[in-house]
Amino acid sequence: MADFTHEDLSGARFEDVYLTGADFHNVDLTGAHFRLVDLTGVTIRGADLVDVDISGQIKNLTINGVDVAPLVEAELDRRYPGRAKMRPSDAAGYREAWDVLEGLWPQTVARARRLDPESLHRRVNGEWSFIETLRHLVFATDAWVNRAILGQPSPWDPLDLPHDEMPDEPSVPRDRAARPSLDQVLALRADRMATVRSVLAGLTDEELAGVTRPVTEPGYPEPESFPVRRCLRAILNEEWEHRLYAERDLDVLARESG
C-alpha cells in the first residue's frame, strides 16, 4: 500500500486512480478539482468547506447532522419549474416530461445563435462545448432509444459523441476533432427528438413496465435486455441536465463576448 506522508503533491494529476478506502489526514485540498469521482460512503470530519461548488447526484448527504439532499432537491424543483416532471411514473407522465423539454430547448438554441459560431466549439472550464453537448445528446438517443428500445444494432451517425469515460468501441464513432456547424447538429437533433416523440406517443403503461429485446451485435449499451423505464429515464435525465450545463456555459460565453 502506498504511503504518502509529509509529501508535497501540489499540482499532481490523478486519473483512473483507485483510492477506495484511502485515509486522508491533515491534507490540504485547497483549489483542487474533482470530476467524475465516486464519493459514496466518504466520511469527512473537522473539515473547512468554504467556497465549495458541488454538482452531481446527491443522496443521503449529511452536513453537521442534517441530511441536506432533500433540501437541495426541493430548492432545485422550486428554481426550475418542470424539473419535478422529469420523474414521471406512467406513460402519460413521460409524454408530459418530453413536452416540457421540447419547449425549453428552443430558448437555449436561440441564445447560442446570438453568439459567434466559433465560440460554440469552445469548452468552458474543460466541459463540453455547446456543439459537443448536442452531439452527445444525439448519441444518447441513438444508444437508449434507437438501439436499446427500437432494436437497431448500429444506429450511429458519424457525429455521435459518446461520454468521455466510455471505453472505445469499434462499432461506435467517436470523432472528437469534428467541428460541424450548429445547423448540421440541429438537423440530427430534430431527427432524434422526433424519434423519441414517436416512441412516447405510442407508449402504454404496460410497455413502460416491460423490458427491451436485446440486440445481438456488440455496441453501446451492451447487448442485453433493459427495463424500458430505465432507457427512457436516461433520456429525460440527459436532456434536462445537459441543457442546464449548456445554459451555464452560455452565460460565461455571453459575458466574455460583451
Summary tags:
single chain, mainly alpha, globular
Structural class: mainly alpha
- Quantity of strands, as a count: 2
Shape label: globular
Round the Cα radius of gyration to an integer and report it.
21 Å
- Largest sheet entry: 2 strands, antiparallel
Q: What is the helix content?
A: 40-55%
Strand fraction equals under 5%
Q: Distance N terminus to C terminus?
A: 52 Å
Short summary of the structure?
By secondary structure, the protein is mainly alpha-helical. The chain is 41% helix and 2% strand.
Give a description of the structure.
The structure is a single chain. By secondary structure, this protein is mainly α. 41% of the residues lie in helices and 2% in strands. The chain contains six helices and two strands. The chain has helices at 69-79, 91-113, 130-147, 182-201, 205-208, 228-257, and strands at residues 62-63, 66-67. Strands 1-2 form a two-stranded antiparallel ribbon. Helix 2 runs antiparallel to helix 4 (182-201), helix 2 (91-113) runs parallel beside helix 6 (228-257) and helix 3 (130-147) runs parallel beside helix 4 (182-201). The relative contact order is 0.12.
